[in-house]
Design brief:
Elements: H1 12-18, E1 83-87, E2 98-102, E3 120-125, E4 139-146, E5 149-156, E6 160-162, E7 165-170, E8 175-184, E9 188-195, E10 198-205, H2 207-210, E11 220-222, E12 239-241, E13 256-259, E14 265-270, E15 276-281, E16 291-295, E17 323-331, E18 334-341, E19 345-350, E20 355-361, H3 370-374, E21 381-387, E22 391-399, E23 404-413, E24 419-429, E25 433-439, E26 443-449, E27 455-461, E28 471-474, H4 491-499, H5 507-517, H6 529-547, H7 555-580, E29 583-589, E30 594-599, E31 603-608, H8 611-617, H9 625-631, H10 635-654, H11 657-668, H12 673-687, H13 692-701, H14 706-717, H15 735-741, H16 748-786, H17 790-819, H18 827-839, H19 860-877, H20 892-907, H21 915-922, H22 926-936, H23 944-958, H24 961-972, H25 979-985, H26 996-1011, H27 1014-1028, H28 1032-1049, H29 1052-1060, H30 1065-1081, H31 1085-1090, H32 1097-1110, H33 1118-1128, H34 1132-1149, H35 1153-1171, E32 1179-1181, H36 1186-1189, E33 1215-1217, H37 1218-1237, H38 1242-1245, H39 1250-1260, H40 1263-1272, H41 1278-1293, H42 1296-1307, H43 1322-1336, H44 1343-1354, H45 1361-1381, H46 1385-1399, H47 1424-1435, ...
Parallel strand pairs: 1-28, 2-7, 6-11
Antiparallel strand pairs: 1-31, 3-4, 4-5, 5-7, 8-9, 9-10, 10-12, 13-14, 14-15, 15-16, 17-18, 18-19, 19-20, 21-22, 22-23, 23-24, 25-26, 26-27, 27-28, 29-30, 30-31, 32-33
Helix pairs in contact: 4-7, 5-6, 5-7, 6-7, 8-16, 9-10, 10-13, 10-14, 10-16, 11-12, 12-16, 14-17, 16-17, 16-19, 16-20, 17-22, 18-26, 19-20, 19-21, 22-23, 23-24, 24-27, 25-26, 26-27, 27-28, 28-29, 28-30, 29-30, 30-32, 32-33, 33-34, 34-35, 35-37, 37-39, 37-40, 39-40, 39-41, 41-43, 41-44, 42-43, ...
Length: 1474
């Protein structure tokens, strides 16, 4: 019995505590009675499933059948044996790795690079990566090691991960090949790393703990590597130096690492002494010691094994026992370590028990020579696969010099807890260099390099494959080594096209080639695809120019030189592309059955190949009976198809590059593929030196029914369907499910892979169809005498040829779209395009989405898939699930096949939907859309109208309006026949207001209107009118549209003509209103006035009047327009009324100097109008007060309570004659005069009446003007004299400032010229002006003198002598009364005394008395009442001696007067008595 040596670092007590008995009921399997190794420490208690399984198996990778049209092969897709490699190479900027340096503890003195290991790679898939609603769905990690550098990348097929690439550099250490192991727990992702000197543990958060919700709804998410910069790489808990004892085995590259049940990290390595030692790091959250355990045997163990292990286990541990490959299978509280050693034996260790549980000699299953048995094994590999239902499988690759062998075993146990290996299968291979292989519970996937250093990947189902036939994987080939350039082609353009065609070269290869080609010149390699293209062009052209030594050389010499340099750069790119395409490992996801190929520079994916492609691409020698069974249940039909495929392959191998280009150019140039195929056949017959055509003819003889076989093949490749895929997710599904599904395969990697798959299928099928066309022409050449009968010949000619040709063109078009790059579109262009689509009401279409920013150049097919098709396909796939979605798992072969085929359906040109073209239109890919439609148009009769419409959109963008108009007209004939056009004419409210064709015209006209193409709108509307017929509503709409755009273009006459033909009166009135407004704004008033307006005269007048009363008077000239309108038609009274109303409104609303000027002109124009009319008709109606306030459109007037006031019921009509208008005209001129003199009066002058204007004029000092106004309107001059008197008072009492100010208004009045010898003041001039007015304007009762004196006395100003003398002459009695009113007793006494003297004859001329008192003169009188009042006033204050004297003076005068009166009276009487 072997013993296990345990290091002293781990106490025995701890081991005893951890010895928990268990068995594996899931691994039990009935075997024949045999001798088993007895394992005394294992009990029969079945354990729970292990918490972590780093490798598991899944059911067989089984592709699904294509989703093309009907009539497929009987068992199509039932056995698709081959896969295709699709390169997932990045075309964006080279992946940005964040770099970190890991400083190893105790490795500072180690020699860097002392140990060199080969590059390696690996991958890790999350446990729930195949669950539909998991955060880790379609998410995995892959890595690459090279020397001291580890590159880690996290990928997701659903979202674009941010910060997902890191590069770790381990100082003074070299990473072991395969020395990276990843595990996951509920909360963390743990990466265990082994170098030749250290071990490391990298603890990262689990994706399920990084996001708040389990729903993945963002297009971009953070990777688990986002916060890797926060990790302390020097933490001793997560980093440890490999101890010198027992020490790492020299030149050993095998390793294993896993997580223990308590979270500890364990690293298994071959020890220097032979055997295995395990280094354990304690759990990150539990303090502990680092321990090392060495597993080795110390005694001889002789035991018979169950028929397959007759040899004994040696007791001494020699170098031949050193492990070549290690693998670990974790179980509950233990781990099984499997070691495939140099002595060709497989050993199984229990880590918990530290015992070797089983030893199996692999030589018993390998038919080798004795030399091989004695030699030390090299190149052996070991893989494990665990399935909960099938148990644990072990896959071993036994390397021998001439061939290798895979041995598959299953670990079994019995109730006696004894373990053995059940040999399942042995698979041989002739390939020599195995790079890597992966194992599932059913399959082996292997990666080789063949003798020509070419990559070979194959897989085999080991349990049921009796023939041992490997299934092929068609690898992605490197770009062609030589580019053939014709004389009519530019070398630079051809090389650039080849270098930058999608799927040819990766960005990294081009960047490296560019750097080398420029001889190390510093260049920024962080370039986009377009920037890189410019840099490459610049670099090659610079090198070319730098090599030129002559100034002149021929064009041919320049072409040769150009081709030489471009060929040199192309060779450099090829070299790096080949280096970066070197495969390193296979990555198989057992949960989704996804197989990836990890290469030095990028990642590629393996996807199932369809049956047709498999038959065409697969060599004849490898085709099996299973392939025939997959074609049809009818053996004869299957054999016919197989022979047909062989014939096609022979033709394909014979077609030269020039012939292939001929066919592609005929498709591109819209020429007949049938003629090209016929010409190729002629060339093949001409150059046939190897009798290939005879071989083809002989194989055709084996086909019993070629027409049926060809038809079956055509139906298999046809994706045409009558049923359109439903759009959008099922609304019955919960929102969280729809949101989660909407992100499925939403990552750029998945989109690229799907579209590369479509491109691969299209390219292959294009070749098949090409060869099939050639073969059919060959059949026609052979004629009915050879193979076909007459009927079959006619059918082949009329049916099959015409079916094959469109099929070839369909695949060519899809292939073209898969290689046509999309254009980067500015945001403003996208927004403008979205506006145009909103006019068409297409923004809710599934083809219109917000184009998210993509750094890499997309092909238009990728753009379509990511923006539109993906959501449609996913919604269709999960619309009616057979099982609950929560229980649905993702199977990569099935999903990628279904998605690819559904995408082909959506891209298929002859299918009814046109989402692809809609997507191009929505994303502003107009050049690509135009090219697509041009390639589609001649031969495809589906969606003709939709194509013409979208082509019209392209022409609009490129500025070819007439071509666009023609396309829109052509599309109109297909309205009602195609889904897109039906959706286009569908209104938002669903109401059908006119015929479908009229709705179509309406949408197109609105589009042209928004874009701003009025000429096209007019032309298309004229075309639509001819189709409108008796539909007066459509006629009105179209003619209104024509009117509007003629008006926009300035075609006034055409606009008026279109207006008169509008059948709808309300629309006609609206257009007439618009015509008036627009022409007025453009100042094109002559056209507006001179139009005849037949039956529209009153409407025009009403519109202009309404506009005139509704808009600002100074901005718009509608009144002047209306005035001109009436004058042009000799309606002078209307014209006068208009101008009078205009003047009224100007006075009310425009309180500016300009407004007053216009008011005067308006009144003058009104006066002129009435003067042109006969006097009896020279009158107008005064505009009512409501002409402004109560006009239509104004808000109602309200009282203080907010209620509308009642409109007046009766209004008197006021007639204005010519004289009235002349008065208003005069008043307007005076207003202007006032405003010019005093700008502050402008605000109140406009609407002031004549009386108000007099006051304003007097206030401004314009007394002459005020007097003129009073005379015109027959108003008293009293306000004028009072105002002038007041100004005289102010001047007399004011200072120099008042004097200076007075000159301005004095100058505005006409002063009488008076010659004086002294300089007069402003006060003197003012008094003189007053005196002049009093002399000039005399009235009865001397009213003006009275008012002036009254004003002066009221302000306590002494009366000037001239005024007193003047008033004495006219009314001395009134002057006396004024004195008495203001208590001027002394002045009154003097006046009475003088007046009495004047009556008596002394100075009578100063009082205006012509004849003084005498018997012969007329009678005279005295104002006795006033004199009595004076005496009374003087007598009231008897104490005042002065008053008594004054009173006495009057009495004396009166006494004297009485005496003389008495004498005169007596004389008079005497004279009368004579």
């Amino acid at each position: 019995m072997g013993k296990v040596t345990v290091s002293s670092k781990l106490p025995d007590e701890e081991w005893k505590q951890r010895q928990i008995p268990f068995t594996y009921a899931s691994l039990q399997r009935t075997v024949l009675p045999s001798l088993l190794l007895w394992l005394p420490h294992l009990s029969a208690t079945p354990p729970a499933p292990p918490p972590e399984v780093t490798m598991a198996s899944h059911p067989c990778l089984r592709p699904v059948e294509p989703c093309g049209g009907g009539g497929k092969m009987a068992a199509a897709g039932a056995l698709e044996r081959s896969f295709v490699e699709l390169s997932g190479a990045e075309r964006e900027r080279p992946r940005h790795f964040r770099e970190f340096t890991v400083c190893g503890i105790g490795t500072a003195n180690a020699l860097a690079g002392a140990v060199k290991y080969s590059e390696s790679a690996g991958g890790f898939c999350y446990l729930e990566s195949g669950k539909l609603f998991a955060v880790t769905r379609n998410r995995f990690i892959h890595w690459k090691t090279s020397g001291d550098t580890l590159e880690l990348v996290e990928e997701s097929l659903d979202v674009n991960l941010l910060n997902n690439a890191v590069r770790l550099k381990f100082q003074n250490c070299s990473l072991l090949p395969g020395g990276v192991h990843v595990s996951e727990t509920q909360n963390h992702v743990i990466i265990l790393i082994l170098t030749n000197q250290t071990v490391h543990r990298l603890l990262l958060p689990h994706p399920s703990r990084m996001y708040r919700s389990e729903l993945v709804i963002e297009s971009q998410m953070q990777s688990i590597f986002t916060d890797v910069g926060k990790v302390d790489f020097r933490d001793p808990c997560n980093s440890q130096l490999i101890p010198a004892v027992p020490g790492l085995s020299p030149n050993s590259t095998s390793s294993a690492a896993w997580l223990g049940s308590d979270g500890e990290a364990l690293f298994a390595l071959p020890s220097a002494s032979g055997g295995i030692f395990v280094l354990k790091l304690p759990s990150y959250d539990i303090p502990g010691m680092v321990s090392v355990v060495e597993l080795k045997q110390s005694s001889v163990m002789q035991r018979l094994l169950i028929g397959w292990m007759p040899t004994a286990i040696r007791g001494d541990q020699g170098p031949s026992d050193r492990p070549l490959a290690l693998a670990v299978h974790c179980v509950e509280h233990d781990a099984f370590i499997f070691a495939l050693c140099q002595d060709h034996k497989l050993r199984m260790w229990s880590y918990k028990d530290q015992m070797c549980l089983m030893v199996a000699d692999m030589l018993e299953y390998v038919p080798v020579t004795k030399d091989f048995q004695l030699s030390i094994g090299t190149g052996h590999k070991l893989r494990l696969a665990y399935s909960p239902s099938m148990g644990l499988y072990l896959g071993l690759f036994m390397h021998s010099p001439k061939r290798g062998q895979f041995c598959i075993f299953q670990l079994v146990s019995t109730e006696n807890n004894r373990y053995s290996l059940d040999h399942i299968s042995s698979v041989f291979t002739s390939q020599e260099t195995l790079i890597d292989f992966a194992l599932t519970s059913t399959d082996i996937w292997a990666l080789w390099h063949d003798a020509e250093n070419q990559t070979v990947v194959r897989y085999i189902t080991f349990e049921h494959n009796v023939a041992g036939q490997w299934n092929s994987v068609f690898m992605h080939s490197l770009p062609e080594e030589e580019i053939i350039i014709r004389d009519d082609q530019d070398p630079r353009e051809m090389y650039l096209q080849t270098l930058f065609t999608p799927g040819r070269f990766i960005n990294a290869a081009l960047c490296k080639a560019l750097q080398i080609f420029c001889r190390g010149t510093e260049r920024n390699l962080d370039l986009s695809w377009s920037e890189l293209k410019k840099e490459v062009t610049l670099a090659v052209e610079s090198e070319l120019q730098g090599s030129v030594t002559e100034y002149e050389f021929s064009q041919e010499e320049f072409r040769n030189l150009q081709q030489e340099f471009w060929c040199k750069f192309y060779a450099c790119c090829l070299q790096y592309q080949e280096a970066l395409s070197h495969p390193l490992a296979l990555h198989l996801n057992p949960h989704t059955n996804m197989v990836c190929l990890l290469k030095k520079g990028y990642l590629s994916f393996l996807v199932p190949s369809s049956l047709v492609d498999h038959l065409y691409l697969h060599p004849d020698d490898d085709l099996l009976a299973e392939d025939e069974a997959a074609i049809s249940d009818d053996v004869e039909v299957a054999r016919d198809v197989m022979c047909l495929i062989k014939c096609l392959r022979l033709i394909g191998e014979s077609v030269t590059m020039d012939m292939s280009v001929m066919m592609e150019m005929s498709c591109y140039n819209l020429q007949s593929p049938e003629k090209a195929a016929e010409q190729i056949l002629e060339d093949l017959i001409t150059i046939d030196v190897e009798n290939v055509m005879e071989d083809i003819c002989s194989k055709l003889q084996e086909i019993k029914n070629p027409v049926h076989a060809i038809g079956l093949l055509l139906r298999e490749m046809d994706y045409e369907t009558e049923v359109e895929m439903e759009k959008g997710f099922n609304p019955a599904q919960p929102l969280n499910i729809r949101m989660n599904l909407s992100q499925l395969y939403g990552g750029s990697t998945a989109g690229y892979i799907v579209c590369r798959g479509v491109c691969k299928i299209a390219s292959t099928r294009f070749l098949i169809c090409r060869d099939l066309l050639i073969l059919q022409h060959l059949l026609l050449r052979l004629g009915d005498a050879a193979i076909l009968g007459a009927d079959q010949l006619f059918q082949a000619q009329q049916d099959l040829l015409h079916r094959t040709s469109p099929l070839l063109l369909c695949y060519y078009l899809i292939k073209w779209g898969s290689q046509c790059l999309a254009t980067d579109v500015p945001v403003d262009t996208l927004e403008s395009n979205l506006q145009h689509l909103s006019v068409l009401e297409l923004t809710d279409s599934g083809a219109v989405t917000g184009n998210k920013f993509v750094s890499s150049p997309q092909t238009i097919v990728e753009l379509f898939f990511q923006e539109v098709a993906r959501k449609h396909i996913i919604a269709h796939l999960f619309s009616q699930p057979k099982a609950p979605l929560s229980q649905t798992g993702l199977n990569w072969p099935e999903m990628i096949t279904a998605v690819t085929n559904y995408l082909l359906q959506l891209l298929w040109p002859s299918n009814p939907g046109c989402l692809f073209m809609e997507c191009l239109m929505a994303n502003c890919q107009y050049v690509q859309l135009q090219d697509y439609i041009q390639l589609l148009h001649p031969w495809c009769q589906v969606n003709i109208g939709s194509c013409r419409f979208m082509l019209g959109r392209c022409y609009l963008v490129t500025g070819e309006g007439q071509k666009a108009l023609q396309c829109f007209r052509q599309a109109a004939s297909e309205v009602g026949k195609e889904e897109f056009l039906d959706r286009l004419i569908r209104s938002e409210d669903g109401e059908i207001v006119s015929t479908p064709r009229m709705q179509y015209y309406d949408k197109v006209l609105r589009l042209l209107d928004v874009i701003g193409l009025p000429e096209l709108v007019i032309q298309l509307a004229m075309s639509a009118i001819t189709e409108a017929g008796d539909d007066w509503k459509s006629q009105a709409t179209l003619r209104t549209c024509i009117f509007k755009h003629h008006l926009d273009l300035g075609h006034n006459s055409q606009a008026y003509e279109a207006l008169t033909h509008i059948p709808d009166s309300s629309r006609r009135l609206d257009c007439l209103r618009q015509l008036v407004v627009v022409l007025c704004e453009r100042s094109q008033l002559q056209d507006l006035v001179e139009f005849p307006y037949v039956n529209l005269h009153n409407e025009v007048v009403a519109i202009i009047e309404s506009r005139a009363r509704a808009v600002d008077l100074m901005t718009h000239n509608y009144y002047e327009l209306l005035y001109a309108f009436h004058i042009y038609r000799h309606n002078y009274r209307k014209a006068g009324t208009v101008m009078f109303e205009y003047g009224m409104r100007l006075g009310r609303e425009v309180r500016t100097l300009r407004g007053l000027e216009k008011q005067g002109n308006c009144y003058l124009a009104a006066v002129n109008c009435l003067r042109l009319i006969r006097p009896e008709y020279a009158w107008i109606v005064h505009p009512a007060s409501g002409a402004v306030c109560d006009r239509p459109g104004t808000s109602p007037k309200r009282n203080h309570d907010g209620e509308c006031t009642a409109a007046p019921t009766n209004r008197q009509i006021e007639i204005l004659e010519l004289g009235d208008l002349e008065k208003e005209c005069s008043l307007a001129r005076i207003r202007l005069t006032l405003a010019q003199h005093d700008p502050s009066a402008v605000a109140v002058a406009g609407s002031s009446s004549a009386e108000e204007m007099v006051s304003l004029l007097v206030q401004a000092g314009l007394f002459d003007t005020a007097i003129s106004l009073c005379q015109t309107f027959k108003l008293p001059l009293t306000p004028v004299f009072e105002g002038l008197a007041f100004k005289c008072i102010k001047l007399q009492l004011g200072g120099e400032a008042a004097q200076a100010e007075a000159w301005s208004w004095l100058a505005a009045n006409q002063l009488s010229s008076v010659i004086t010898t002294k300089e007069s003041s402003a006060t003197d001039e003012a008094w003189r002006l007053l005196s002049t007015y009093l002399e000039r304007y005399k009235v009865r009762n001397n009213l003006y003198h009275h008012c002036v004196i009254n004003k002066l006395l009221s302000h306590g100003v002494p009366l000037p002598n001239w005024l007193i003398n003047s008033y004495k002459k006219v009314d001395a009695a009134e002057l006396l009364r004024l004195y008495l009113n203001y208590d001027l007793l002394e002045e009154a006494v003097d006046l009475v005394s003088e007046y009495v003297d004047a009556v008596l004859g002394k100075g009578h001329q100063y009082f205006g008395i012509e004849f003084p008192l005498s018997a012969t003169a007329p009678m005279v009188w005295l104002p006795y009442s006033s004199i009595d009042q004076l005496l009374q006033a003087l007598g009231e204050n008897s104490a005042n001696s002065h008053n008594i004297a004054l009173s006495q003076k009057i009495l004396d005068k009166l006494e004297d007067y009485q005496q003389k009166v008495d004498k005169a009276t007596r004389d008079l009487l005497y004279r009368r008595n004579l």
